[in-house]
Every structure is written in C-alpha cells, then in structure tokens.
From TrEMBL:
Name of this protein: Diadenylate cyclase
Source species, domain of life: Bacteria
Record keywords, A-Z: ATP-binding, Cell membrane, Membrane, Nucleotide-binding, Nucleotidyltransferase, Transferase, Transmembrane, Transmembrane helix
Reaction(s) the record says it catalyses: 2 ATP = 3',3'-c-di-AMP + 2 diphosphate
Entry's transmembrane regions: 20-43, 50-68, 74-92
Length: 288
C-alpha cells in the first residue's frame, strides 16, 4: 500500500518543479505578509480607500477594453499611465507623508528597554497633566469651549505659525483664562509642548470623515482632523454640552470623565510608550 502511494505521488509530481523551502523563505514570507497587511490597513484607514476603489474601477474598464479589443482606449491608457502614476503621488501626498511620519515615530531602541522610564523621557510632568485635566473639567462645568493639542513625536511648527506665540508654563488658570469668552485668545486651539504652551488661536485642519455625527460642531471636527494628520492628543471641551472628549489616531472618544482623561495623558507621558495593539484598526470615531 505504501509503495502504491509512493508510485502514485511520483507519477503525479513527475515533471513538476518542487522548490525546497528554507527557513529564510518562511521569514521572508512573514515579512511580506506583515508589510502587505500594513499597506492595506493604511489604505483602509485613509482617504486613499475611496481613491483605490476608483482606480480598481478604472482598471476593470481597461480590462474590458482589452477583452473586446478596443484599440483606441488601450492606446490612450498606455500613453497616460506615466501621467497617472505622477497624479497618484500628488493625490496621495498627505497620506504618504503621514505613513512616512509613522515609520519615523518607531523607536526600536527604546521599545526594547522597558525599564528606561527616566525623567529625560517624559514629555510633560504630572503637574502639567493634572493642570490640563482640571482646566478641561472646570471649563466643562461652565460650558466654556476649549481645544487643546498635546504634542508628541511629530512637531507641530506649521500649526503654531497660524496662531499667536505664548511660550508660558502650563497651568489650569492660564488655560481657563485663554478660553474665556470674549477674550482675544479664546478662538482656536492651544498647542502644548512639554510643560509649556507654545501658541494659542491656532487653526487646525477639519476632518472630512463623513461618518462623524451631525451633532458635532467645528471644534470636534477640527480635533478629529488634527488627530488624523499627526500623532498628537487633541482634547476638546464642548461649548454646548460641557462634555470633555479627546481625539487621537483618527479616533474621537466622547464624554470621558476625569479619570479617563488623566489615564490617557499618562499613556503618552513617556517617549518610549508605544500602544500594544499593533494590529488594531483605529480609524473612525467612537461614542461613549
């Protein structure tokens, strides 16, 4: 019986090339799998998804033209492929820039050293975190709108230039005074770098996410839009309801309490803190 099976397999595989799989081949396949997965996840989590669907439809149309031998259409497609490649780079420029920035954020040396929690690795102090939390909920109690951007790895110089330079220490009193109604600095966002407020009245990019609730106004849309183009934590206080929310990584979390906001600030307080959910799909918004 064994000989019969061996002869059957020999006859079936005769003339076929069966490559020998080495350990490096398996490692290479795993690397390519992760790489392709990350690309697909990046496309899914950005505006590139809609553009990719348009490219797929265009490719299907060209395929039909090839099947039915529409020579004019095939000639035009062949002549315009170089232009389309350049146009794709131009159209995808914000997404490509963000992808490269995310790649540059990875700090392998610090991630393999979990005991490196020195003061030098702090983005901001506990006093700054407590001041931000106290200011947000004090303003929420009186329905004072606020928008606070806490910088992480990506520098926000281009957004600082849209506002007024301050360069003062973070405190709850200063933040409350900035966002007080009818004051010169209350309109726009405040950018916090380390333990200092770098600028106020900054303009932030608005999100074009169509799944955002219509109940949310410009302030929340700006918070979500800012979190889509950088790694900052954006805290927003609603002027209508007084609810405190935060946006990060393209996710808007609404109606958090004091402990939840403080915990989120603690998660980004150290420079070598990285989220553990590597393969979590983070794009969108979540309502608490």
């Amino acid at each position: 019986m064994v000989d019969w099976l061996r002869n059957l397999m020999d006859n079936y595989t005769e003339g076929m090339y069966l490559p020998q799989i080495q350990v490096m081949d398996v490692i290479e396949i795993l690397i390519l799998t992760v790489f392709i997965y990350e690309i697909l996840l990046w496309i899914k989590n950005t505006k590139a998804w809609m553009l990719l669907r348009g490219i797929i439809m265009l490719g299907a149309f060209i395929l039909l033209a090839w099947i039915f031998q529409m020579h004019t259409i095939l000639y035009l497609a062949a002549q315009s492929i170089n232009v389309l490649a350049i146009a794709a780079v131009v159209v995808f420029q914000p997404e490509l820039r963000r992808a490269l920035e995310k790649l540059g954020e990875k700090n392998l040396l610090s991630s393999i050293n979990p005991f490196d929690r020195s003061r030098e690795n702090e983005r901001f102090s506990d006093e700054t975190a407590d001041s931000i939390v106290n200011a947000c909920f004090d303003m929420g109690n009186v329905c004072t709108g606020a928008l606070i951007v806490v910088e992480q790895v990506i520098r926000l110089n281009e957004y600082e230039m849209t506002g007024i330079e301050l360069d003062c220490k973070v405190s709850s009193q200063v933040l409350i005074n900035i966002f007080e109604h009818n004051t010169p600095l209350h309109d726009g966002a405040v950018i916090v770098r380390g333990d200092r407020i770098t600028s106020a009245t900054c303009y932030l990019p608005l999100s074009d996410n169509m799944s955002i609730s219509k109940d949310l106004g410009t302030r929340h849309r700006a918070a979500l839009g800012m979190s889509e183009v950088c790694d900052a934590l954006v805290i927003v206080v609603s002027e209508e309801t007084g609810l405190v929310s935060y946006a990060m990584g393209g996710v808007l979390t609404r109606g958090v309490n004091r402990e939840e906001l403080r915990e989120k600030l603690s998660q980004i307080q150290y420079r070598n803190s990285e989220p553990k959910k590597k393969f979590a799909i983070r794009k969108g918004w979540r309502r608490e």
